[in-house]
TrEMBL record, chains A, B:
It comes from the Bacteria. The lineage of its organism: Bacteria, Pseudomonadati, Bacteroidota, Flavobacteriia, Flavobacteriales. Residues 21-119 form the HTH hxlR-type domain. This is Winged helix-turn-helix transcriptional regulator. InterPro entries: HTH_HxlR, WH-like_DNA-bd_sf, WH_DNA-bd_sf. The keyword Transcription regulation applies. Keywords: DNA-binding, Transcription, Transcription regulation. PANTHER family: TRANSCRIPTIONAL REGULATOR, TRANSCRIPTIONAL REGULATOR, MARR FAMILY. PROSITE patterns: HTH_HXLR (PS51118).
Length: 126, 126
DNA sequence: TATGGTACTAACAAATTTGTAAGTAATGGG
DNA sequence: CCCATTACTTACAAATTTGTTAGTACCATA
């Protein structure tokens, strides 16, 4: 998000992991704090910057910008700027991002199930 | 991983996001640096602490311990301690974690495809 | 001339994650 | 008693991510 150091152990490890494990690679692509929420909002079509900001409670303009930029760089969203004043910019999913949709639906179901299990195991251990 | 502050904006945001989006919730469960790699190693059965350490290049004992502890707390792995000296401990996937396997296979395929697309778009833009 | 709306950017600070280096406990074998 | 082995812990430091606050540019409208 800011610049990263070039040869920190941290970064070398990340490179190694994402190169040797496509799964880790995939999860890293969608792994920023707000990225999945943004992608979900875009599932039904284009949205403007301000629409995203208003639909995502708690996100700051800076964070929204950062995450959008990364998603764009990674080819998951397409950014369109209209030559108007005041500015208008919209964002939409790319094809490769749309291919994620069925997968993330399953993952979302898994998450819901996991959440329940964890809750019931916590309450039963009281 | 270390303790977290109780009411930082950061933490409040995370709580809000994972509560309102099961997908984000799910990804957070598997979102530490080494977690997916660990889970993948366990896909074929139990492994001891030292086996994991040896199979995962670059991980330190501290990181391995931390990630294993979190995975355990989240109910994704089961830890078994044998009353021996020197100690023997092994780790295995839980049922709910095994349910992730088909999903992560798809995600892994997606990752491989995405990697190719990104590479070709980078090289074509030179 | 001042104001407003939109989509940002910049400088900085705080929080969180990750890595380094060293140490611990328990016990069997020499 | 001393050492080796295994699975950790602890204290600390570095790196990275996230959040705060205050701007910016543009032009239309009042």
């Amino acid at each position: 998000m800011g610049k990263r150091k070039e040869n920190s152990t941290n970064m070398l490890n990340e490179n190694y992991i994402t190169e040797s494990c496509n799964l880790t690679y995939a999860v890293c692509k969608i792994g920023g704090r707000w990225k999945l929420l943004i992608l979900c909002k875009l599932e039904n079509g284009k949205l403007r910057f301000s629409e995203l900001r208003n639909q995502i409670k708690g996100i700051t303009e800076r964070m929204l910008t950062l995450q959008l930029r990364e998603l764009e760089k990674e080819g998951l969203i397409k950014r369109t700027v209209y030559a108007e004043v005041p500015p208008r910019v919209d964002y939409e999913l790319t094809e490769i991002a749309k291919e994620l949709v069925p997968i993330w639906n399953q993952l979302s179901n898994w998450g819901a199930k996991h959440k329940e299990i964890l809750l019931s195991s916590v309450s039963s251990s009281i």
